[in-house]
Amino acid sequence: MNIHKGFSIFDRNFTLPLLKMALLESDADIVFLQEVVGENLLLQKKIKDWPALQQSEYLAGEKWPYHVYGKNALYHQRHHGNAILSRHPIDFSENISISNYRLEQRGLLHCSVKIPTIENPVHLFNVHLDLTQRSREKQIQKIINRARSHVPDRCPLILAGDFNDWSRQASKPLHESLLLKDAAKNYHGEYSKSFPSFMPVLTLDRIYYRTFNVLKVLTWDHHPWPSLSDHLPLYAELEL
User: Fold this and answer.
1) 116 pLDDT exceeds 90?
2) Exposed/middle/buried for residue 23 (C-beta within 10 Å: 0-12, 13-18, 19+)
3) For the CA atoms of the chain, what is the radius of gyration?
């Protein structure tokens, strides 16, 4: 889910405490988050409820004892990026720059988790791609190269995040190169509409997977989710 740095659409309200409560009720094993603030020295002075902890650590709490933050966009006195929260031990993590331009700083947060009931580690890729098609194509190729070089073919892989894929071009190269399937497309026959949160018409957010079976895919458009960010969250239940 793109949490919009903890603010509602148009930055009207600071929603991070409510977002934490909603995430806790989701009871998810693994959470992929984008636009997570690692530090903002200006806002922490202005906003009363700004947490003392980094946003990823604050949201993780005791529910997800294992969490990783990848710093991507760095500015004066502030930075943000992607985060993965997990109930299962994270035995590897690395944040890789997939930026094409200085003004759009993007990263691929790569983790692997060890789940007791699964023989091989499950690899997790969390991404937030650029706004232009040409730039996204380059980033998709970087994702493919990373998976080919660091994820064995036999290992499960989940790739999730905000793809900004207005033209729905990401799925074909990901499937042809990595055998990844879009969870919503495979389960419902169409991509999940997640943006903007108050009237979702664009399918920007995706969950891709391989070696799993899909049991359920939902777009959470019920209260309070539309008021927590400019994106709606996607939820998928997967099993080997």
Assistant:
1) no
2) buried
3) 17
Confidence of residue 103 (pLDDT cuts 50, 70, 90): confident
- Tokens 């502030």 correspond to what residue? 78
Burial class (CB in 10 A: 0-12, 13-18, 19+), 125: buried
Torsion of CA 179, 185, 188, 191, to 10 degrees: 160
Question: pLDDT tens across 157-171, in order?
Answer: 999 999 999 999 999
Q: Which of 3.60.10.10, 3.40.50.11710, 3.40.640.10, 3.90.1300.10 would CATH assign to domain 4-239?
A: 3.60.10.10
The pLDDT of residue 226 is 98
pLDDT value of position 153? 92
Q: Give the DSSP letter of residue 225.
A: G
The amino acid sitting at 73 is: A
| 6 φψ region: left (φ > 0), alpha (ψ -120 to 50), beta (else) | left
**pTM for the whole structure:** 0.96
**Terminal CA-to-CA distance of the chain, rounded, Å?**
23
CA distance linking residue 37 with residue 234, whole number of Å: 20
Sorting pLDDT into bands at 50, 70 and 90, what band is 45? very high
Peptide bond into 121 cis (omega under 30): no
- Separation CA 185–CA 208 (nearest Å): 10
User: Which residue's entry shows tokens 């060890």?
Assistant: 114
